[in-house]
Amino acid sequence: MSDNEHPFAQYVRILGKGKNGSRSLTTVESKEAMTMILEGQVRPEQLGAFLMLLRVKEESPEELCGFVQAVREQMTVPDDLRVELDWSTYAGKRNRLPWFFLSALALASDGVSILMHGARGHTTGRVYIEDLLHLFGLKAAKNWLDAELELKHCNLAYVSIDMLNPELSEIINLRPILGLRSPVHTLCRLLNPLDAPYRIDGVFHPAYAPMHQKTAKLLGQNNSVTVKGDGGEAEIKPDSDCSLQWVRNGEYVDDIWPRRFQQRLVKDKQIDTRDLLRLWRGEIDHEYGTGALLETLAVSLKLIGRVEQSDAANKMALDIWEARDKTLY
């Protein structure tokens, strides 16, 4: 083995030099480090040490900004493909169905183009959007041409992180090996591959939400919202006050979205993904599901500037939901 120091060692040293000697990476350093990772220039033990040192320290907005910049430079995206709303979905749902998917479908049916991107399978026992697309006659795009066709078909396309960047997908799937999530889970939510003017994402841990929006501002994403949502997804919990972290016209705003129901609703004993389609078609009633999708739809409408006030957003969300084509899926 050579005595020469590996080029990536400097970044591990910066993060792990000790209580008084370590520091966060600059945006330039984090971009350089992530570029090396994506290009396979890092040894496995270096990658594990790097990710876990960041996890213990907690990544900074400047670091996340550099990571996102590096990933976006590696992606090949059509110049003429545009959407209005970027919707990330990486957490998966454990105890409830992903009712927010119906919010996205309703918004798309009302003329808003949406790119949804996410991952699947990195945590056992969760329901991921990619696994239920087939219920609605949809499929994950294998390439950007597929995504363009889906957008023309229904105003919504789903792409997996495997398609966006296979290297990131491999790192996400290290979670059961490392035992912890890594900063990649956060940076994927912030990718906004098609540079949509509006972006929505979710977190489970409230401390991460302000970091998302501070990073969004550094990336020049001037209109976005991070939801402390059910299971870590961008889904409003209708039986609980919900923390929202906004960037509105480039300004950071901390907000609370009030609960729809004053008392907690009982969770379903078993979840059946077909209930999503049944609710869309009007074949079943589901108090929690309807509340979750309407509140999430209302937040989305406020984000994209259809309305300014929350009451008006809730009314518009109900109108859109009731006017949906129940035979569309």
Account of the protein in words:
There is one protein chain. The protein has about 325 residues and is α/β, with parallel strands linked by helices. The chain folds into two domains: about 70 residues, Transferase, Pyrimidine Nucleoside Phosphorylase, Chain C (Transferase, Pyrimidine Nucleoside Phosphorylase, Chain A, domain 3), CATH 1.20.970.10; about 240 residues, Pyrimidine Nucleoside Phosphorylase, Chain A, domain 2 (3-Layer(aba) Sandwich). Strands 3-2-1-4-5-6-7 form a seven-stranded mixed sheet. Helix 5 links the parallel strand 1 and strand 2. Helix 2 packs across helix 4 and helix 4 packs across helix 10. It is globular and about 70 Å long. The mean pLDDT is about 95.
- Provide the number of structural domains: 2
The SSE string, one letter per element, is HHHHEHEHEHHHHEHEEEHHH
Approximate helicity band = 40-55%
By CATH, the superfamily of the largest domain comes out as Nucleoside phosphorylase/phosphoribosyltransferase catalytic domain
- What is the overall number of helices? 14
Quaternary state, please?
single chain
DSSP strand (E) fraction? 5-15%
Radius of gyration using CA atoms only: 20 Å
Largest sheet: 7 strands, mixed
Coarse morphology: globular
- Low-pLDDT runs: none
Mean pLDDT: 94
Structural class: alpha/beta
Numbering strands along the chain, what is their spatial order in the largest sheet?
3-2-1-4-5-6-7
The CATH topology of the largest domain = Pyrimidine Nucleoside Phosphorylase, Chain A, domain 2
Question: Which class of the largest domain in CATH terms?
Answer: Alpha Beta
